[in-house]
Amino acid sequence: MHTIQVGEFKARFSEMIDSVRAGETIVVAYGRNQEKVAALIPYDQLPARQPRRLGLFAGRAGVSFADDFAITDDELLGA
Hints:
Blueprint: E1 2-5, H1 6-11, H2 13-21, E2 26-30, E3 35-40, H3 73-77
Parallel strand pairs: 1-2
Antiparallel strand pairs: 2-3
């Protein structure tokens, strides 16, 4: 893991992206106290998203839509 200030990150952006593509994690620090504000990680290291649960109906109900189902935003919102 490599920590870099915002100004240096901006100046060396392409180089930093190449480092991330090579598997390195880049942490971006900001301000006089070098507060860590962001981390760039290789895309394949993102945690997998969990499927959405149906709240109170989890385990009791399910939903599926027909392939030809279509609704506009206005219809959904009742406008």
